[in-house]
Design a protein that fits this description.
This protein has 446 residues and is an alpha/beta fold. Helix 2 crosses helix 18, helix 11 crosses helix 16 and helix 14 packs across helix 17. The two termini are 46 Å apart. It is globular. It has a seven-stranded parallel sheet with strand order 3-2-1-4-5-6-7, sandwiched between helices. Strands 10-9-8-11-12-13 form a six-stranded parallel sheet, with helices on both faces. Strand 11, helix 14 and strand 12 form a beta-alpha-beta unit. The chain contains 18 helices and 13 strands.
Length: 446
């Protein structure tokens, strides 16, 4: 019975492969068709900004190109409107948005167990639907579906992956094998030797498949040197990984920079997600207010994607009351971008506390606004901040508090030097820099 089932599956896959080949061979056109896989193309995050900026850069570079964006949920007209409102991009008439029926399978909420593996396998199914719907010449994956290149490889199409973060990394493997509690490793697992061994096996198996997927991709782009190094560790030295920093709204923010700053005002700009570690910011405030008696005020500004994020913001407010810093903290949830710009233009200091952030677009935005940034000494943030020149790096809550004290005590000319260094550094991550780098790596595939 198992042999018959295996044979049936094999014949089914062969039939699918032949049909895909037939569709590809039957396509005759003078233009090159490029497909972007991004099921969440209508959302307003950093990944979506990379997608639509990449589309715009490609359209501007080549006249004879057709672009298909394979989305997963949302009406195409609504997506275009959101792109215009959120990013200020007009979607070109040569861009076609196709909503895939299986696109919702890429949401992690559909897989409460083995999320990493099942969500990645779902990416293969979604890609196959895309390839059957509209065959393309070049396939670009921008939405963190690591196994999607396998499906594109069946058609022998040229493949580019822009990777925002490694789906699995050597750091994740170490966290599990050493029994440390983390965002991806609960106390239930760390308290059980059997569960730990099972998860280590699961992660190693996933890493092996991930490595094969990476090697089947023609061009791999990473958003920071930190991400690139982790990908090289997983993919092996035989695969070249190029760093292309994501596009940041540097020019827009610079126009709103104010010369007068509210001394002692601190801003945090990050979604209310657990990995952003807002708790460390409140611990920093506890040290500054209750131990050092500094005159400071923290504004926590960020988006809430869902009810869980909204609850997290409420929990943080409760923690601020428990630490007796409530009167020194403000919470601004899901505020309009113009209001965010106003806060950034007035603030003296900015903090970013996520450990092993893959890049940190908000870090660049805060630097471009003229705030003196204090970021976590890890991950892609170290690509952005030059310690002591364009900002500062810290790790513990006491480290952050010490740097805030140092900045407050600085002379005006010293602050001005840091702010100017931050603005110049931010220009390295502008839209124009991204456009040139992305197109440079894409052109050989067209």
């Amino acid at each position: 019975m198992l042999a018959m089932l295996g044979l049936a599956c094999g014949l089914g896959l062969l039939a699918l492969w032949l049909s895909l080949r037939f569709l590809r061979r039957g396509r005759a056109s003078s233009s090159t068709r490029v497909g972007f896989l991004h099921p969440s193309c209508g959302e307003g995050g950093g990944g979506e900004r990379v997608l639509w900026r990449a589309v715009a850069a490609l359209i501007a570079e080549r006249e004879n190109v057709e672009v298909v964006v394979f989305g997963g949920y949302g009406d195409p007209d609504d997506v275009k409107l959101k792109v215009q409102n959120q990013f200020g991009f007009d979607v070109d008439r040569r861009v076609r948005i196709v909503q895939l029926r299986t696109g919702f399978w890429t949401k992690p909420s559909y897989f409460p167990v083995c999320t990493l593996l099942l969500q990645s396998l779902a990416g293969i199914i979604v890609t196959l639907e895309a390839m059957l719907t509209i065959p393309v010449d070049v396939f670009i994956e921008t939405s963190a579906h690591p196994f999607a290149p396998f499906a594109a490889w069946l058609l022998n199409v040229r493949i580019l992956s822009y990777i925002h973060y490694p789906t699995i990394s050597t750091e994740m493997l170490r966290t599990v094998s050493e029994g440390r509690i983390g965002v991806n490793n609960s106390s239930f697992v760390t308290s059980s030797r059997i569960a730990t061994r099972m998860k280590v096996f699961y992660y190693r198996l996933f890493a092996k498949i991930y490595s094969l997927a990476g090697r089947s991709t023609d061009v791999v782009l990473a958003n920071s040197s930190w991400t690139a190094q982790h990908l090289r560790d997983i993919f092996g030295n035989r695969k070249s990984v190029h760093v292309v920093y994501p596009p940041c709204k540097v020019a827009v923010i610079e126009t709103g920079v104010a010369e007068r700053r509210n001394e002692g005002q601190i801003v945090s700009l990050a979604q209310f997600r657990p990995e952003k570690n807002h708790e460390k910011q409140l611990e920093m405030m506890n040290i500054l207010v209750n131990e050092k008696h500094c005159s400071v005020r923290l504004k926590l500004i960020g988006g809430a994607r869902n009810l869980a994020d909204e609850d997290r913001a409420v929990t943080l407010q409760q923690l601020s009351a428990k630490l007796k810093v409530k009167d020194h903290c403000e919470f601004h949830v899901n505020v309009p971008y113009q209001e965010v710009r106003r806060h950034l233009a007035q603030t003296d200091i900015a903090v970013h506390t996520m450990s092993h952030e893959h890049f940190g677009i908000s870090v660049v935005e805060m630097m471009a606004s003229g705030a003196i940034i204090i970021g976590h000494n890890s991950g892609g943030v170290r690509d952005i901040i030059e310690h002591g020149t364009s900002g500062f790096l810290a790790e513990s809550s006491s480290d952050y508090a010490a740097v805030v004290e140092r900045v407050i005590a600085m002379r005006p000319e010293e602050k001005a030097r840091i702010r100017e260094g931050a603005r110049k550094r931010a220009l390295m991550f502008s839209d124009d820099v991204f456009d040139a780098a992305f197109v440079k790596h894409l052109i050989p595939l067209l």
